[in-house]
Specification:
heterodimer, A: mainly alpha, MetI-like fold, 11 helices, globular, B: alpha+beta, Rossmann fold, OB fold (Dihydrolipoamide Acetyltransferase, E2P), 2 domains, six-stranded mixed β-sheet, five-stranded antiparallel β-sheet, 9 helices, 20 strands
Chain lengths: ~260, ~375
């Protein structure tokens, strides 16, 4: 059903979209600008992208970001799925509190999460570095995975698992042959969500990174502090590309019906 | 028929969810090969009873015994029970083709892979689905009736001795439902398999069952053949849930107060009703009786056959139902009764009665059922 929207609403939505996306587009455009100064356009170049490859610090940060995102995604996905299964499939005292506690990190300001994790690591004398970044990323990605998987589980007909049991499958087999395949799109969507969240996180990482934990967003921040140079535009464009790809993949997987 | 040992037996089985008793000291025994129905309104405990038998629920700790083939199976897992089940939602695996759905149980029972395709193809109930239509399709590409058949085939292909059916026809339209009723009945007879059928549809239960356990409020209200349940309902609940019933009340009179083992039921307006004497009747106590609409007849005042019970009333609505005509009569005492008359053909032999006629509602004393106090 299509309906004509009032003019002011169209203007408002357009305004919001322009404000949200125009700066990013400009940034991506300037990453191809031959001029050293972002203000004037002096022709198309891939020079700044070539320069990225010559910068070991950027390549190292990119590699670290991808490693952290991959490890944290795997951990958060496995743990988040288990949490969702526990919440949907068993009754225990304090279940509602656990579920509430699960949603809390999603709404907690990142800066609070960052600071409190830092305090925790210092308190238990864990040296800051790649390890603490991975732990922090796993922690803040887990609730997102759990929520996505939980939604899928709650929409699933319990009698499917019961049918598997009465057809001769034990609990483990029923889970492997019925529950897991039906849950797969939800788990996949949760994992992709976790991957993007981890990849572009700055605030929390900034607090728990330490010397060895400079991920790409943290590196970009430190570069900007020394003044804008066109390579930053190129790095940012790469980051935008990576996250957009993951989000697009997540949307496709999550949008799959039935299956 | 010699009495075979029961294939399924419930002995004082109870199941609670929190404070609520879903099944309360339920006992019954099912004979091998029987078509046995659990009938009742929603929330009466019939589905929980079935789930206790399937092994999806466990009886309370002091909650009696569920037995299959004489063995107590209270704690046995569903996959250790060799039972088949057709679910209300069909519960077909949406990620598997129809063929793989039917093969699922065979695979789990370690049937050699070379034998599986043949057994799937011969699965009872699938016979009427051409192989081309089902083999590769996913369940969501099938019609409701086809899904139903696949669900049935998936259970029957394992040749269980007991098949549980949880309102399997609820989602089908009337015509298909009648067709499937006949088909299920035929399968039950041909395969010699015990069918335990849960339904809230009394007509369906009467049409298909060898015996019915009518459930109400977590208990078995009455157990018997369809004829016993319909013609001798023991309680007001059973009388009203199965078929239609006109209820009359009064106070029991003196035993032998009527001729030939009849006992009068004294009514407020002095018109006593005669009922067959019943060991539960005590003089001076309240009694309720149920009379089926087709046991009643209408006659003009003064034409009541001798010896019959009769109550005066006024004709209200006349409802044309095809094979019968239902006449609603408002009794002088205020109650309304339904009288079912055979349709003799309204075009050639129209009914004598029209709205507003003064009539007598009459029935023979033996055509009534004395109900147990609720």
């Amino acid at each position: 059903m299509t309906r004509r929207l009032p003019g002011w609403l169209v203007a408002l939505v357009t305004g919001v979209f322009v404000l949200l996306h125009l700066p990013v587009l400009v940034l991506v455009a300037y990453s191809f600008n031959a001029s050293r100064y972002s203000a004037d356009w002096s022709g198309f170049t891939l020079h700044w992208y070539a320069r990225l490859l010559e910068r070991p610090d950027i390549l190292r940060a990119l590699r670290l970001s991808l490693t952290v995102a991959t490890v944290a995604t795997v951990l958060a996905t496995v743990l988040g799925t288990l949490v969702a299964l526990g919440l949907a499939r068993s009754g225990f005292r304090g279940k509602r509190m656990v579920e509430g506690g699960l949603y809390l990190p999603i709404v907690t300001p990142e800066i609070v999460t960052g600071i409190s994790l830092l305090i925790l690591f210092v308190a238990v004398r864990v040296p800051l570095g790649v390890g603490t970044v991975i732990v922090a990323h796993t922690a803040f990605c887990l609730p997102f995975v759990a929520v996505v998987v939980l939604a899928r589980l709650r929409g699933m007909d319990r009698s499917l698992e019961e049918a598997a049991l009465i057809l001769g499958a034990d609990e483990a087999t029923a889970f492997r042959r019925v529950t897991l395949p039906l849950l797969a799109p939800g788990i996949m969507a949760g994992a992709l969500l976790a991957f993007t969240l981890s990849l572009d996180d700055f605030v929390i990482t900034f607090f728990v990174a330490g010397p060895g934990g400079t991920t790409l967003p943290v590196l970009v921040y430190s570069m900007v502090r020394r003044g804008i140079e066109p390579t930053i535009n190129a790095v940012s464009a790469v980051l935008v590309l990576l996250t957009s790809l993951t989000v697009a993949l997540a949307a496709r997987v999550g949008g799959e019906r039935g299956a | 028929m010699p009495e075979l040992p029961p294939i399924v037996e419930f002995r004082q089985v109870s199941k609670s969810f929190g404070e609520a008793r879903a099944v309360d000291a339920v006992s019954f025994a099912v004979r091998p090969g029987e078509f046995f129905s659990l009938l009742g309104p929603s929330g009466c405990g019939k589905t929980t009873t079935l789930r206790l038998l399937a092994g999806f629920e466990t009886p309370d700790d002091d909650g009696g015994e569920v037995r299959i083939d004489g063995e107590v199976v209270n704690r046995r897992r569903p996959y250790e029970r060799r039972i088949g089940m057709v679910f209300q939602s069909y519960a077909l695996f949406p990620h598997l083709s129809v063929e793989r759905n039917v093969a699922f149980g065979l695979e789990e029972h370690r049937i050699p892979p070379t034998e599986i395709p043949g057994r799937v193809e011969r699965a009872p109930g699938l016979v009427r689905l051409a192989p081309a239509t089902y083999a590769r399709r996913k369940p969501h590409q099938l019609s409701g009736g086809q899904r139903q058949r696949v669900a049935l085939a998936r259970a029957l292909v394992l040749e269980p001795t007991i098949l549980l059916l949880d309102e399997p026809l609820g989602a089908l339209d009337l015509k298909l439902r009648k067709e499937m009723q006949l088909e299920l009945k035929t399968l039950n007879r041909q395969l010699g398999m015990t069918f335990i059928y849960v339904t809230h549809d009394q007509e369906e239960a009467l049409a298909m069952s060898d015996r019915i356990a009518v459930m109400s409020a977590a208990r078995v209200a009455q157990l018997g053949t369809p004829a016993e349940i319909y013609e001798n309902p023991r309680t007001e609940f059973v009388a009203q849930f199965i078929g239609e019933a006109n209820l009359f009340g009064g106070v029991a009179g003196r035993a032998g107060g009527g001729a030939g083992g009849l006992r009068p039921i004294l009514q407020a307006d002095g018109r006593d009703l005669l009922v067959p004497d019943h060991p539960g009747l005590r003089e001076g106590t309240e009694v309720r009786i149920a009379v089926r609409p087709e046991w009643l007849d209408l006659c003009a005042p003064g034409e009541v056959p001798p010896g019959e019970n009769a109550l005066p009333g006024t004709v209200g609505d006349v409802i044309y139902l095809g094979e019968t005509m239902h006449v609603v009569v408002t009794l002088a005492a205020g109650a309304r009764v339904r009288v079912a008359l055979r349709n003799e053909g309204q075009l050639l032999n129209p009914l004598r009665w029209t709205r507003g006629d003064a009539v007598m509602v009459a029935w023979r004393p033996e055509d009534c059922q004395v109900l147990e106090p609720a």
